[in-house]
Amino acid sequence: MTQPSAKGAAVGRRIGIGLMYGFWKPRVLGAWRVPASGPVILAVNHAHNIDGPMLMGTAPRPVHFLIKKEAFVGPLGGFLEGIGQLKVDRDSTDRKAIGDALGVLEQGGVLGIFPEGTRGEGDFASLRAGLAYFAVRSGAPIVPVAVLGSTERPGRLVKGLPALRSRVDVVFGEPFEAGDGSGRRTRKALDEATLRIQEHLTDHLKNARRLTGR
After folding, report:
1. What does residue 183 show for φ and ψ, rounded to 5 degrees?
2. pTM, to two decimals
């Protein structure tokens, strides 16, 4: 199985710290909830274009994100691969991406996933089954993450970005297990795990909004 560069992801984390704290004002809550070692999956809501880089710069550990293949164009593609990010074809069963993601978890790394699949309302209303598969297959705990920042205020750089120098809240939730403890990976088991995950993520987002006043 391929092993995306852990050193590259560490470099990506340093770049993320510089960019995110340089252009915005992240307020990070609950980062201590992320296990200090071992495999873990960060499940992140996706309402802003900076959600991925923001997590790379605020998570307490380097993160390997599954990123749509359309982003891997020209020099940006080489850069993303160099910092340990994973290319995925969202329109097919991308076995290489699956192997890369499982490889990250088998090596005790952190896998970042946008379970909604694409940028939208960021409310976890529609989840893809991939998150459940990775969690059940690897046994890694899931940490829900809410990235909350307004994109409607004047001063934003481009559509889909929070205003420059505005506060962006990043709230980490309690880790949880997606599986039912049986180790089953049947379609029924994955469907049940997806429902379980959606309940946890939705509850975390509600709590995060209440905590931050967003």
Report:
1. 80, 0
2. 0.89
**What's the DSSP call for residue 168?**
E
Question: Which one, of 132, 153, 118, 137, lies nearest residue 46 by Cα?
Answer: 118
Burial of 192 (0-12, 13-18, 19+ CB in 10 A): middle
Q: What is the pLDDT of residues 38-66, one digit of tens each?
A: 999 999 987 778 888 999 999 999 999 99
Given a cut of 80, whether residue 181 has pLDDT beyond it is no
Residues of the chain above pLDDT 90, percent = 54
- Look-up of token digits 């020099």: 75
Cα separation, 173 vs 106, whole angstroms: 23
Widest Cα–Cα separation across the chain: 51
Q: Which two tokens stand for residue 80?
A: 């993303």
> 157: which DSSP letter?
S
161: closest CA among 68, 66, 24? 24
Mean pLDDT, the chain, rounded, equals 86
